[in-house]
Amino acid sequence: QVQLVESGGGLVQPGGSLRLSCAASGSIFSINAMGWYRQAPGKERDLVATIRSGGTTTYADSVKGRFTISRDNAKNTVYLQMNSLKPEDTAVYYCNAAGTLSGIAIGEAFNYWGQGTQVTVSS
Fold first, then answer.
1. pLDDT > 90: percent of the chain
2. Which end of the chain is more exposed for a tag (fewer CB within 10 A), N or C?
3. Is the pLDDT of residue 103 over 90?
4. Is beta strand 10-12 parallel, antiparallel or unpaired with respect to 117-121?
């Protein structure tokens, strides 16, 4: 009922930048929060950053000052600007959206994940 489409991953050298995008579509009445998580090989999926509909943001300590999350509410799209990338930022990055549905399921809560996009930081 809700689809999340991510883009923007790739290979970048240490110190470089990438911008991830995630667009939500489908039977959406409202989105309360969108965020980015990442999972490195052999590790659990961890929070990177979240942003609520009012603009409140949360960041993992490891990315504070380097990553910026932003959101276009009209387009149901969230962005992650990643600067000063380090090899330890290498992971699959997943978009997440939580909100309420429209249509026949109006008012029901949803929580969906994107398919993931690979970010590799290497020289």
1. 90
2. C
3. no
4. parallel
What DSSP character marks residue 43?
S
- Please state the length of the chain: 123
Using CA atoms, how far apart are residues 56 and 33, in angstroms rounded to an integer?
9
> pLDDT tens-digit profile of 22-81?
999 999 999 999 999 999 999 999 999 999 999 999 999 999 999 999 999 999 999 999
User: How many whole angstroms separate alpha carbon 30 and alpha carbon 12?
Assistant: 34
Distance CA(51)–CA(13), nearest Å, equals: 27
The tokens for 50 are 């979240």
User: Taking Cα atoms as reference points, which of 97, 110, 106 lies closest to residue 29?
Assistant: 106
